[in-house]
Amino acid sequence: MKKAVLLSLLFLFCFCKQQKQNVQEEDIDEAIMAANKMLDRTSSNLNVDNSISLFTKAEKESETISYKKGIMESNKYLMTIYYSFVQDNKKSLDHGYKAEKIALELNNEQALSQIHEFRGGAFLDMGLIKESHDELQKALALSRKNQNHLRLSSIYLKMLLYTEKTNAPQDTILAYLNKSLHEAERIKDNDQELRSPDEKYYQISYIHTNMGMFYTGIYKPQQPELAEKHLLDALFIFEKRKLSNPTSQISALNALGRFYEATNQPQKAVPYAAKALKLEKGSQQLEERLTAFMVLANSYDTLKEKDSTIKYTQLYSHLSDSLAIIQKKEVNTTLNKISIQKEKSYQANTQRIIAIALTSILILIVSGWLYIRSRNKTARGNYEKLIKKLKTDYHSSVETIEEVEKKIPTTLQISEETQNSILAKLERFENSNRYLKKNISLSSLSHSLNTNQRYLTEIIKTHRGKSFSNYINGLRIDYITHKLYEAPQYREYKISYLAEECGFASHQAFIRVFKQETGVTPSYFIEKFKSQKQKL
């Protein structure tokens, strides 16, 4: 009798323990599902930080009860977050290796495909081209085997980044775009990997928009008919599916507006830019607003509608200037900036020499440094009147912008880790001279840096003190002024050549931006510098 009672109690204990474990596993699965939905870029509920916290908690709880699926899933999603949202390749790879170990034990090829895909992306960011190619090929093989169309579409988009790194021919780029679109269209609406049913259609619209931009900005010769078709298809998806998130739709509207404006069809450009402005009011995408103002100003100018041209030109100029002024960063004169950079560089070299130099050499170095510094001071003295005038002009404009400053929305909450990652990539971009490409856009740069447009806009605004367009133009002007300063032959070139050299579509735009950045025209700068060199 006692033996039977003991057996019954033992059975009851084991049953309760198993039930408790099952409940815990279900709770973990639900937490992982909820955290994954927070990563839906098409939703207003996007919350990366909370998602990381939930996945990290799920990983720890899974380890406590030895729940392998929970360990694999939580690490798999953490891998994608640190790659796609945080841009921390080391953490992405660490979580990927943890997930891979369990995925191999469970023989989960779907998870392995995703792991290889994002590891390939991380390797690509790190400059490991061959390793990246090998990982992406593994991901392709597994996804093809399992006919995973969502993964295949995503992998082909990552292969586009690979083509950029390897300077692949345009037909290869086009092939990957077509393959990505083909696979995206084959995704089932109830695919379990989709965070929401609409995610498939946002993906298709995004690819169409990029194909439209590809046919007008990269493909040679340009194919305006194909570009228009893809851009219209991108917008048709929004209308047919009644997609509610405005962010992607505004970008698609502006892309089509810019296309019609660039192809001299202003009467078609106007309604798309106007609709983008109307949608933008609710989402506060200032860069998109700036683009719409530009399209409307240029289109109305072509249509000879003077009042509307003046209106949108002023709005464009006002918003562009206001975004820069809000950051409280005065624009230093170009020669001052270059002189300071030269002095800093010289001082750094001097410090390295001091560490190994003898006393006699030290004296010579200090003497030479003082001589160079005195020459730089003399050069700056010739510009004191101009500097005073530029500062006066700047301060006189600040007072008229104070009301605009109050209307600017609160900045996005971006984690310090994410900011540092984006800033590191921006620094590499700034050192690469890729900003000299004429077709560079916020969309293409954010895609290249593996971040979203809102984060990139906020980082540039906060840490560079400029809107995206002013940021790119500033880099271009900084490039050409250094060329004028350091290479005498550049001072003999025509303005049109200088404009093309630093990425401007026209010499008129170059002159306008040059004056906006430096306070003087390129011709004045060159003549003044030449006369200064003669005096020296």
TrEMBL record:
Keywords: DNA-binding, Membrane, Transcription, Transcription regulation, Transmembrane, Transmembrane helix. Signal peptide: none annotated. Residues 420-528 form the HTH araC/xylS-type domain. Gene3D superfamilies: Homeodomain-like, Tetratricopeptide repeat domain. The chain crosses the membrane at residues 353-372. InterPro entries: Homeodomain-like_sf, HTH_AraC, TPR-like_helical_dom_sf. It holds the Pfam family HTH_18. PANTHER family: ARAC-FAMILY TRANSCRIPTIONAL REGULATOR, HTH-TYPE TRANSCRIPTIONAL REGULATOR EXSA. This is HTH araC/xylS-type domain-containing protein. It comes from Chryseobacterium rhizosphaerae.
